[in-house]
Amino acid sequence: MPRTVADALAAAERLWPLDGAEAWDAPGLLAGDPAAPLERILLAVDAVADTVDEAVERRAQLLLVHHPLLMRGVTTVAESTAKGALLARLIRGGCALVAAHTNADVVETGTSARLAELLGLEGSRPIEPAPGRPERGLGRVGSLAEAESLEAFARRVASILPPTVGGVRVAGDPARPVRTVAVCGGAGDSLLAHPAVRAADVYVTADLRHHPASEAIETSLVAGGPALVDVSHWASESLWLATAADELRAALPDVEVVVSERRTDPWTLLIVNDAPATMARKEHP
Predict the structure, then answer these.
(1) For a pLDDT cut of 70, what percent of the chain falls above it?
(2) Could you give the C-alpha distances from 248 to 31, 75, 181, 251, in angstroms and in order?
(3) CATH no. of 106-236
(4) Which architecture characterizes domain 5-103+239-259 according to CATH?
(5) What is the pLDDT of residues 143-157, one digit of tens each?
């Protein structure tokens, strides 16, 4: 029996149940006909011009992304707007759009779990367990088999991520030994004050802003806390696509599932001065 988009929606619901999404989130079917035939799915982190064009060029009937295109208030989908133009391109190309966002973050094989797995964390568990589902939740915390320096650990983080112009930024003494590691794929500054993060030696996440990062480091000087490793939002979540693809192939063995290799990190150029790569913070008296 030919597959339809509805079959992919059912598989997505089994893999990443919508009831696991945060209240503010907007995952699920964003555009397209559930009854439309399905032969090929393209996976990407973002629905942007590059990935939408790729989906249409590959004749995919479904573009499954991590980030919802219509998450905040939208009052028009006119083609003179970025989102309207993307949706029109997909609809004309016969390609549906589905997002699996925070509902894919919290599952046992979600974005943070994949990051923890690739870093070799043992005993990985959620930082913030879901009510009634302790095996699921936001972020992950676990331990390295052996302690290593913060610098060595950060270099290993960089080695598992796809390269971006922003690279990997580190806050803390490069020689500091780390063993307990907390991770959160995507923007994770909301967890900076969480006890499980505070108890870790290092916290890996993305989109750390100046004030929350500075406050976390200053707090660690007087009350303990983790070093920080700040990575690209896109890069930290792109690792999950391979896992999601394997899960979809198992659920829909007669559907072709392709992972986009197009980089959707927005930054394209980094200008640096002649300062050394490692700069110590000013010593406190």
Answers:
(1) 96
(2) 19, 33, 29, 5
(3) 3.40.1390.30
(4) 3-Layer(aba) Sandwich (3.40)
(5) 999 999 999 999 999
| Per-residue pLDDT tens digits for 209-236 | 999 999 999 999 899 999 999 999 999 9
Q: Express each pLDDT in 176-198 by its tens digit.
A: 999 999 999 999 999 999 999 99
Provide the pLDDT for residue 284: 42
CATH topology identical between 5-103+239-259 and 106-236: yes
Domain boundaries, the chain: 5-103+239-259, 106-236
Residues 68-88: tens digit of each pLDDT: 999 888 889 999 999 999 999
pTM recorded for the entire structure: 0.94
